[in-house]
Automatic annotation (TrEMBL):
The keyword Transmembrane helix does not apply. SUPFAM superfamilies: Zn-dependent exopeptidases. Pfam families: AstE_AspA_cat. This is Succinylglutamate desuccinylase. One of its GO terms (molecular function) is hydrolase activity, acting on ester bonds. Its cofactor is Zn(2+). Keywords: Hydrolase, Metal-binding, Zinc. It comes from the Bacteria. Residues 49-228 form the Succinylglutamate desuccinylase/Aspartoacylase catalytic domain. Signal peptide: none annotated. It comes from Bizionia arctica.
Length: 324
């Protein structure tokens, strides 16, 4: 984190001095009806200089649990810092949010379009403006995501290895799990890393669904991060984490050996042993009854909640090697 904090920052052509509250519309594009599509960016600057932290969600439009977390930061005035600057972008992919879709209207994944291009596809242009007109002013990004489709993620922070600062911040955040995961080419996290901007990626819940516990872990983690940087305003209290964070270096998927109707018998976050019964797969006619058993010891960090599965489908994501 930088120690030289700016008295005036520039976001999308707007100069914003210390002590300013401002909402800026990120003009993305127009619909076919010529209706403007704009993404609100909520900026709160204390009169006291300090770090600039960006909270983003909705990079995939159907991942609304993250949107709920950033919404709570705003509605509960957690985004009003004692010092420094807090920028909130609750929905990056407003097209997908409106349509309940992961992608942009051009069919592209915004999170595979970074760092973008000034004259490229729609998703690429949005990525380009974000990276050139917002990210340069930011010291830390916390980006909120969920599991895809029917796969429910345990609350977790994802970081790359060999980054002591990220390890420290992940511990401060206090999610139940931290996964070491490599950067994906053309992802938002990778593009920020290339600019020297640290990113904590929070995963929790599943797409098109809001889970109150996942939201609570996210909000409480944010409060601890703000308190760590002496940014949490005096009207908000940061509570200590209820559990010790487990750091995960490797994990393994347990997959369906048969197709059929699936029902899990264990809950997310559960610690399992080899031989434990995890679920059952049956057929609609009462002839097939297959028991899913664990062949690994660890914690369940992702659970497939689909009622119907095919042979080979991922059912349970289990930690393999952990660090305390």
């Amino acid at each position: 984190m930088t120690t030289e904090y700016k008295k005036v920052i520039s976001i999308l052509g707007h100069d914003i001095p210390l002590g300013t509250s401002k909402e800026i519309n990120f003009n993305i594009a127009k619909l076919h009806t010529a209706t403007k599509i704009e993404v609100p960016i909520i900026i709160e600057r204390s009169k006291k200089p300090g770090p600039t932290i960006l909270f983003t969600a909705g990079l995939h439009g159907d991942e609304i649990n993250g949107v709920d977390i950033v919404r709570q930061l705003i509605s509960r005035n957690i985004n009003k810092p004692k010092r420094g600057t807090i920028i909130c972008i609750p929905i990056l992919n407003v097209f997908g949010f409106l349509n309940g879709s992961r992608s942009f209207p051009d069919g592209r994944d915004l999170n595979r379009s970074f760092p973008g291009s000034e004259d490229g596809s729609l998703a690429s242009r949005v990525a380009y403006r974000l990276m050139h007109e917002i990210i340069p002013e930011v010291d830390l990004i916390i980006d909120f995501h969920t599991g895809g489709a029917s796969r429910f993620n345990a609350a977790q922070i994802r970081i790359v290895e060999n980054q002591p600062q990220l390890v420290e911040l992940a511990n401060v955040f206090g999610a139940p799990f931290v996964l070491y995961s490599k950067h994906i080419v053309k992802s938002f996290r990778n593009a920020c890393f290339q600019l020297g901007k640290p990113v904590l990626l929070y995963e929790g819940g599943k797409s098109s669904f809001v889970d109150d516990n996942i939201s609570k872990v996210g909000v409480e983690g944010v409060k601890r991060i703000l308190a760590h940087f002496e940014m949490l305003n005096s009207k908000v209290k940061a509570n200590p984490a209820k559990f010790k964070t487990v750091f995960v270096k490797k994990s393994k998927w347990i997959r369906a050996k048969q197709s059929g109707m699936f029902k899990a018998k264990v809950a997310i976050n559960s610690k399992i042993k080899v031989g434990d019964i995890l679920g059952q797969i049956t057929d609609p006619y009462g002839k097939v009854h297959h028991t899913v058993k664990s062949n690994i010891e660890g914690y369940i960090i992702n659970l497939n909640e689909a009622a119907l599965v095919y042979q080979g489908d991922a059912l349970f994501h289990v930690t393999k090697i952990i660090e305390s």
